[in-house]
Amino acid sequence: MRAARYYGRNDIRIDDLPEPEVGPGQVGIEVAWCGICGTDLHEYLEGPIFCPTPETPHPISGETAPVTLGHEFSGTVYAVGEGVDDLEVGRHVVVEPYIIHDDVDTGPESTDYHLSPDMGFIGLSGRGGGLGEKIAVQRRWVHPIADSVPLDQAALIEPLSVGYHAVQRSGAKAGDVALVGGAGPIGLLTSAVLKALGVTVVVSELSPLRRQKALEAGVADHALDPRETDVVAAVRELTGGRGADVAFECTSVQVVLDTLMEALRPTGVLVVVSIWGHRSEFDMFTLVMKEIDVRGTIAYVNSHPATIELVESGKIDLAPFITGRIGLEGLVEEGFDTLIHRNETAVKILVSPSGRGL
Ligand SMILES: [Zn+2]
């Protein structure tokens, strides 16, 4: 089978690999669609970050580079390993792509397995990836989805779970007003979860295309251009002078962080969703004087069942966020190139590893 493998910075190759063996407790999945994520681009341009090097194996997977990429994927079960009796061949599934030590409690009550030592991701840290035609995954991380959800849209359930967890961290509830800084894929999907909960969503975004996407997809009530509109004043006007109840930082840009802090109401909550590769200059004075709560959020934890329910029930439509479909051979020249150089023209580009979806 064919798979896109990461060898190191600026070095991704399409390789011919043996099909994975479906061991006891595992599920064999034929990948339908896999999204390209900002994390994949960071590995390509600046990595290895989550990916192992050729010399240093990942502490849990034990694998070194090259590793198969792709962690946002959907597919169909083609085989089940010994002991798996609750998933049948033909079932549509998505994967929660964690690599976690065996002694960590990953049960349904756990709220912190994603923060356990050495945590890694399938599709970055080993154990195959969604940019290969087939993959074998431990049953724990495989989530069945209804046939009514198209498999292309299902590939966006993984990044939608990131938005779901971010919204959970914020404590936002129906009737609140949220300000989302940045309408890239994660900002848009976070907005989708907020809207589904009955929150009024204001998005601040430079790209006209992304603002338009936020409004067309119905995930934002207002999409502001911060070069033209005073975002803080606009949020005050919308909230009777009070300020936003919650804010989501999805850019890792200083001026966005400053705007969100200013636009929040006293005792508001700021959730930092983007992964900051540099230190920020944080406005501690505003934090103190408004008693603002600042919370981090990373990935998801037991978020997939509720996220899948939002999609299956039709409360969230993921179709508008798919802006491109390519085969494996177009991964770097077409997919990565668009997202690196013409990022504002795309939201989510999906890859069909077998080419059958195209
Ligand atoms: Zn991702």
Automatic annotation (TrEMBL):
<feature type="domain" description="Enoyl reductase (ER)">
    <location>
        <begin position="8"/>
        <end position="351"/>
    </location>
</feature>
<dbReference type="InterPro" id="IPR036291">
    <property type="entry name" value="NAD(P)-bd_dom_sf"/>
</dbReference>
<dbReference type="InterPro" id="IPR013154">
    <property type="entry name" value="ADH-like_N"/>
</dbReference>
<protein>
    <submittedName>
        <fullName>2,3-butanediol dehydrogenase</fullName>
    </submittedName>
</protein>
<dbReference type="InterPro" id="IPR011032">
    <property type="entry name" value="GroES-like_sf"/>
</dbReference>
<keyword id="KW-0862">Zinc</keyword>
<dbReference type="InterPro" id="IPR013149">
    <property type="entry name" value="ADH-like_C"/>
</dbReference>
<dbReference type="GO" id="GO:0008270">
    <property type="term" value="F:zinc ion binding"/>
</dbReference>
<dbReference type="InterPro" id="IPR020843">
    <property type="entry name" value="ER"/>
</dbReference>
<dbReference type="InterPro" id="IPR002328">
    <property type="entry name" value="ADH_Zn_CS"/>
</dbReference>
<keyword id="KW-0560">Oxidoreductase</keyword>
<dbReference type="Pfam" id="PF08240">
    <property type="entry name" value="ADH_N"/>
</dbReference>
<comment type="similarity">
    <text>Belongs to the zinc-containing alcohol dehydrogenase family.</text>
</comment>
<dbReference type="GO" id="GO:0016491">
    <property type="term" value="F:oxidoreductase activity"/>
</dbReference>
<dbReference type="Pfam" id="PF00107">
    <property type="entry name" value="ADH_zinc_N"/>
</dbReference>
<keyword id="KW-0479">Metal-binding</keyword>
